[in-house]
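S.,

Sequence below, as promised.
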Amino acid sequence: MLSFVMITLAVYFFHSQNTTHKPIQSSSTTYLYETVTAPIQPIPTIKSIDSHWLALGKKLFNSALLSKDNTISCASCHKMEHGGADNLQLSVGIDGNIGTRNSPSVLNSVFNFRQFWDGRSHDLSAQMSEPIHNPVEMGSSWAEIITKLENDNLFSNDFYQLSPKGITRANIIRAITIYEESLITPNAPIDLYLKGNLDALTSQQKIGYKKFVSFGCVSCHQGLNIGGNLYQKIGRVDSIPSHLALDLGRYEFTLNENDKNVFKVPSLRNVALTAPYFHDGSVPDLETAIMIMAQGQLGMSLSEEDIQDIKSLLQAFTGELASLPEAES
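The prediction came back faster than expected:
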């Protein structure tokens, strides 16, 4: 076990030196980082953000005008009260269409090194067009959306107050991106603990944290987002439930044989709020998810005590949605 832990930590430290943890942004949003000597890093706080574009982005994020039939908004699948996800196995789009993968959380997504389960988009701005054009999701187009927004006096006024170009694809993307950059969840117990408040974790959570590190969970779930910063093959060490291997992951995007069943490692922040789990949304609870991951990724059969200790730690990854600055009139 000791040799495995040493290899695990070596992988982490190599990765941390070769991958930036700071988000790729298309705006002027900046964050204040606090680095600690640990594999998991605290979520930063917002240093500066454009409150006017943020306010417009929030309206757009919650507007069904972005969908073809005016029934679906970004918020339909990314609910703040459900950890930035929707608690469905697979999300529902226009005309009752069912998606093919579980909706990931939008919270802290700015800190993911790629977007989507297969990592096909580099950043928040780049991913915006996909749900817009996907016939199973919003089924719309930028031309249709721009026309509808131009016919809405409130949106039209908001856009022209911020940009002489008014309602354009670039301005829509800019607004929603800035809003999503604001959706971070600082002050999770794990962050407070890492920054020196040793009472922020319960005794069981402290035990769970030691196991999370010593078992090797941190080889994939580390950094600012406790994940979200590398790719990994599901079932890389041992067997997994067969249904989890039906989705070929990045292979469907790259057609590279080595990418079969490879996915972006999901963030574990707020994971206690975002059941069901995995790319197919087939796992209903944390206990089962922990058991599957331990077996398939680490080759370990955990005791019930181990599972409960790690579950307790995962609950300490739930943070507080950052308060948003009000736009000045």
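The first helix runs from residue 2 to 18.

Coffee later?
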